[in-house]
Amino acid sequence: MLSIKNLKANIGEKEILRGINLEVKPGEVHAIMGPNGSGKSTLASVLAGREDFEVVGGEVDFQGKDLLDFGPEERAREGVFLAFQYPVEIPGVSTINFMKTALNQVREHRGEEALSAVDFLKVMKEKMELVEISQSLLNRSLNEGFSGGEKKRNEIFQMAMLEPKLSILDETDSGLDIDALRIVANGVNKLKNKDNATIVVTHYQRLLDYIVPDYVHVLYNGRIVKSGTKELALELEEKGYDWIKAEADQQFA
Amino acid sequence: MSMTLSQKDAMNQIAEVHEQTVAKIPAVVAEKAKAAWEALAAEGLPAPKAEEYKYTPITKQIEKHFDFTAEVPAGKLTAEEVEALRFASVDADVFVVENGVFNPAISHFDAANYTACSLAEAADQHADLLAAHFAKHPHQEDPFLQLNTAMTANGVFIHVSKNKVVEKPILLLHINDTREGQVIAQPRNMVIAAQSAAVTVFERYRTIGEQKSLNNVVTEVFAEANANVNYYKIEDEGDAAYHVGNTMIVQSRDSVVSTFTMTLNGAMVRNNINFVLDGENITSNMYGLSLLKGTSHVDNHTTVDHTHPNCESNELYKGVYDEKSAGVFNGKIFVREGAQKTNAFQSNKNILLTDDASIDTKPQLEIWADDVKCSHGCTNGQLDPEQLFYLRARGIDQKTAHGMLLYAFAADVLENIHIDALREELEKIIHERAGY
Ligand SMILES: Nc1ncnc2c1ncn2[C@@H]1O[C@H](COP(=O)(O)OP(=O)(O)O)[C@@H](O)[C@H]1O
Ligand SMILES: [Mg+2]
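Above: query sequence and magnesium ion SMILES. Below: predicted holo structure tokens.
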């Protein structure tokens, strides 16, 4: 589904991604871990099409298409979804109106008819239950004045509405209390099926007790320096990142 | 102050028309007209470097394009044209000011609960009221205000007596009909809300025809004790329309006045709104929204003069400038020595959509009292790229995302409009302008 080959990206003169390789197949869950500043959010942003980063090398194939050719909206319509680490507040834009506009543009791209107001509300109700988000929250302006947990839940709600093929969750668990974490993880698990894939970027092994990954990768200094199964996450939790950093620093010195 | 040759030309023209005017108008008004002319003659119209007009060189435009002595065409507006130029969905009493003169023949109003007539009739039938209010605002120093007073033309006089609540909005629809030639219009309106009266007045400015027009309008608003006045001004004039407006507001104790100024088009527009808070426990709200494109220019100058304790003023002006349009904002807040416990807030926010668009913002706070809360802030910038990316990352195309953000930015000022049908019309205009 997703094939990243030797992806390199800069911001200004600064090299941030230095050659990322990653293969993701339908039905899989990949976890990307790594110390702060290693490039996890950058990778997520580059995949979603943020223009601040300049891709200076490599390829990204998504379902047979060159993802790097597309603007962010086309990627979203093709089925890429980024749950932001820090969802931005947009005063004056109603969450419901926004969601309806987004969903109908995505549906149009898929060759589906726009939903009527009634059908839209029906779908929305269904997905709201899935992520246990309240109507009163959705009646407000997009993310405005939402707590950290509410913002993250709103991200998963949007994911549920748009039914993406590939979801990238950027530290969706960070800063959540355990109840909110369960709700978010539960939502993600319910949306999982054999045709879609999930990349969870996280700092903490705890999330992986709730969303069980097939593969775990360690991103350090702009490269994936180690890959393994979920046991790797436990090992990292126990031993920290220093041993991996030392190995990597030696290898790329 | 020295005058250039062309300034003298304009001033000579004005002198001539002033002489003719004073001969025709009632004594109460004539006296003020003479005084205004003397003040104007001493200083002249604002020179290019005059502090108050340096970003809006309207004198130059007037000298270049207009002749005060030329006869103003009468205007041939039909009732159908009037309907097409107002918001027909807004149920209102409609007073048409055609080429600067109130024209009852194409107006329609029932004036339930209030008195309405032309200013000339008011001088005759309500001489005491007119004498007590005409040019009585303490700030008479603006040269265009003086010009209007010196050549005063016929506008609309509205009086709401004690305890009367006027439910239906009053529309003062100013239309310049330039089909027969260029128009200089200098209407003068007056709105008096007596003690505990309530009224909503909205002015709309339109142009018909392609030739140049100049509006130099003055509206005097008096909110007596405990009165409530909403005053809205919506400018959507032609590309060759020049406009200077002076809205002169005097508030007595316990009154609430809210203004909303929206500018959508015009060659060069200058709005002076001048509040004097002449009593305690007064609330003054000023809101503004400018949505400009092309080479339109708008300059909003506001003054709030706090002279008594325990009053509050709130000000929020927003602007969206596209193409080569330009904005100026100057917000003066005076808090006089005795005006303790004043709360005065001011905010000006602008979005520039192109590199050629521009904005000059200047807050000007002068505070002589020590126990006050005053704040001001301004932001000038582009649409937030983070917000744009967020919307696009959900599949929304760039143009729509742009429009959604512009709409959100602009529309929140409309919350302060209390006529639902009018607000809906303005929302439609913003949707159109935002392309969403
Ligand atoms: N907008 C930016 N401008 C400059 N440097 C940035 C920017 N965004 C990220 N970086 C830098 O890129 C590196 C990787 O950041 P990021 O991808 O956010 O890491 P992570 O998500 O793994 O914590 C860091 O050194 C960070 O300082
Ligand atoms: Mg990050």
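The longest strand of chain A covers residues 14-24.
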